[in-house]
Amino acid sequence: MEIYQALEGRRSVRKYVSPATDEQLDRILKAAALAPSPFNRQAWDVVVVKNPDLIDQIAEIKYQLNLGLSRKATDKTKAQAQRQKDAFNNASLLVVYQRERNNDREIRYDAGGGWLLMGNILIAAMAEGLGSRIISFWDEAEEKVDRLLKVPAERKQISAVNIGVPDPSEVIEPRKLKPAEKWIHFEQFP
Ligand SMILES: Cc1cc2nc3c(=O)[nH]c(=O)nc-3n(C[C@H](O)[C@H](O)[C@H](O)COP(=O)(O)O)c2cc1C
């Protein structure tokens, strides 16, 4: 697939009919490992979560996390949180970590490497004809996920991602892009 076409076609998918196969995950992870990283440190770890019980527990953590985003649990916020949870169904789950360091610069740039690895995962998923969506956890929810995955203390969660065969019945609204003149500046900020 042409790279510009892949970038144009990538959307966050929140409804899946089946997860990635082992062979697909293997190719996606090999492509992920080609990402640039500071001093080629490759300070990342990826946990491939296949155990349905673990996936259900992580999906529930995401549900509760997003429900808590609004002060009132209205039908709309419940439906939004449910959509976040349902996206775990029939999908593969990967959680990306970085090695913790005690130097701010290294932490910042290792996170950059981890995000570039994540970018490669999204594009490689496209190359496999699969959809993906990033999943964020923070605070207590992040800690709960780490405990479930038995993450060593010196690892920091970057983000998680679902990958799978998109359900064609999902309606994905056209993306709204910020006009170029609002974010591209020449020579200096205006
Ligand atoms: C750092 C980051 C965190 C995100 N967290 C979530 C998330 O927790 N749940 C989710 O459904 N999508 C999440 N997304 C996906 C964004 O909502 C999505 O990329 C954005 O709305 C643009 O839509 P598109 O990916 O279809 O182009 C996240 C994306 C990024 C880059």
What do these coordinates show?
The protein has 190 residues and is an alpha+beta fold. Helices cover 44% and strands 18% of the residues. It contains 7 helices and 5 strands. Strands 1, 2, 3, 4 and 5 form a 5-stranded antiparallel β-sheet that branches. The longest helix is centred in the middle third of the chain and has 24 residues, at 104-127. It is globular and about 45 Å long. The model has no long low-confidence stretch (mean pLDDT 96). Flavin mononucleotide binds next to strand 4.
Beta-strand segment tally: 5
Q: Give the percentage of residues in beta strands.
A: 15-25%
| Low-confidence spans | none
| Count of DSSP H/I helices | 7
Mean pLDDT: 96
Q: Summarize the main sheet.
A: 5 strands, antiparallel
Computed CA radius of gyration, to the nearest angstrom: 18 Å
General form: globular
- Report the structural category: alpha+beta
Q: What ligand molecules are bound, each kind once?
A: flavin mononucleotide
Which series of helices and strands comes N to C? HEHEHHEHEHEH
Helix content: 40-55%
Distance between the termini: 38 Å
Summarize the structure.
The chain is α+β, with helices and mostly antiparallel strands and 190 residues long. Helices cover 44% and strands 18% of the residues.
Give the helices and strands, then pairings.
Blueprint: H1 3-9, E1 16-19, H2 22-32, E2 44-49, H3 52-67, H4 75-86, E3 92-99, H5 104-127, E4 131-135, H6 139-148, E5 155-166, H7 180-183
Antiparallel strand pairs: 1-5, 2-3, 3-5, 4-5
Helix pairs in contact: 2-5, 3-4, 3-6
The chain binds flavin mononucleotide.
